[in-house]
Amino acid sequence: MGRYDRERNFLKSNFDSFKNIKTDKMKGIPQPEGVKPYDLNSIIIPLPNVHKDVLKKENIYECISSRRSTRFYSEEEISLEELSYLLWATQGITGTNNAGLTLRTVPCSGATHSFETYLFVMNVAGIEKGIYRYLPVEHSLLLMFELKDIDKKVDAITLEQPFVPNFAKKAAVTFAWSTTPYRSEWKYDITGHKKILIDIGHVCQNLYLSGESVEIGVCAIGIYDQAAIDNLLQLDGDDEFIIYLAAAGKKRS
């Protein structure tokens, strides 16, 4: 039980220990950037404005009751309007507070928003297959690079799925969320790590529900090759690394 006890303690509220910690915020250290910078010469693809006309189900009760993890996808492509909506639903900016922090479509501890959204685009209308990053401030996609045999790369990264092997490579797009832990550590020190895990759950659940509302199937992926995906996305694996994945595509009849 020893190792269980250690890990179970991580799941508990540890706010009392936080009271005795002087965080970097308290020390007056500047807050880290809330979004990852990028080369202004990058290829940027503006996304369509989000509007409710894209919805096929407006009833939230119906979306919640119908939601299932979907591992079987048709060959039908996702529209750019639908992808725009899914990105907005998971990390879209809806305003700012009095401190200038972004307010988004998902809750986040202290508005620290430690996540970046990377996309393995395989079957989206109007854009080439490749690796993209979502820019929430601009509501645009940044083309990182095109990738030959992208489906095989996704398959290699997501091997050993216990229920339906190799399903991710058949999706239209795979979301890969990274975390930059210091965005949360700056404000919460070591107690930020639990908050990061809670917050990424909010993000993926919004993908499930928004996907259901446009009849796009979603399946969260917690089993993946950490080093392989970090290396492919050019992340250092320490200050930024992938924390969660989810495949999405049109449901197979």
Give an account of the 3D structure.
It is a single chain. This protein has about 250 residues and is of the alpha+beta class. It has one domain: NADH Oxidase. It has eight helices and nine strands. It has a seven-stranded antiparallel β-sheet, with helices on both faces. Strands 2-3 form a two-stranded antiparallel ribbon. Helix 3 crosses helix 7, helix 4 runs antiparallel to helix 7 and helix 6 packs across helix 7. It is globular, with a radius of gyration of 19 Å. The model has no long low-confidence stretch (mean pLDDT about 95).
Features:
253 residues; globular; 8 helices; two-stranded antiparallel ribbon; alpha+beta; 21% strand; NADH Oxidase
Q: Would you summarize the structure shown here?
A:
30% of the residues lie in helices and 21% in strands.
Topology:
Elements (H helix, E strand, L loop, with lengths): L1 H10 L3 H4 L25 E3 L13 H7 L13 H12 L1 E4 L5 E3 L10 E7 L8 E6 L4 E6 L4 H8 L15 E7 L2 H7 L3 H22 L2 E6 L4 H7 L8 E10 L3
Antiparallel strand pairs: 1-6, 2-3, 4-5, 4-7, 5-6, 7-9, 8-9
Helix pairs in contact: 3-7, 4-7, 6-7
Determine the fraction of residues in helical runs and give it as a percent range: 25-40%
Order of helices and strands, N to C? HHEHHEEEEEHEHHEHE
The CATH superfamily is identified as NADH Oxidase
Gyration radius, to the nearest Å?
Answer: 19 Å
Number of helices: 8
Task: Write down the CATH class.
Answer: Alpha Beta
Helix and strand content put the structural class at alpha+beta
Q: What is the oligomeric state here?
A: single chain
Tell me the number of structural domains.
Answer: 1
Major sheet attributes: 7 strands, antiparallel
Rounded mean pLDDT score: 95
**What is the CATH fold-level name?**
NADH Oxidase
CATH architecture: 3-Layer(aba) Sandwich
Number of strands: 9
Low-confidence stretches: none
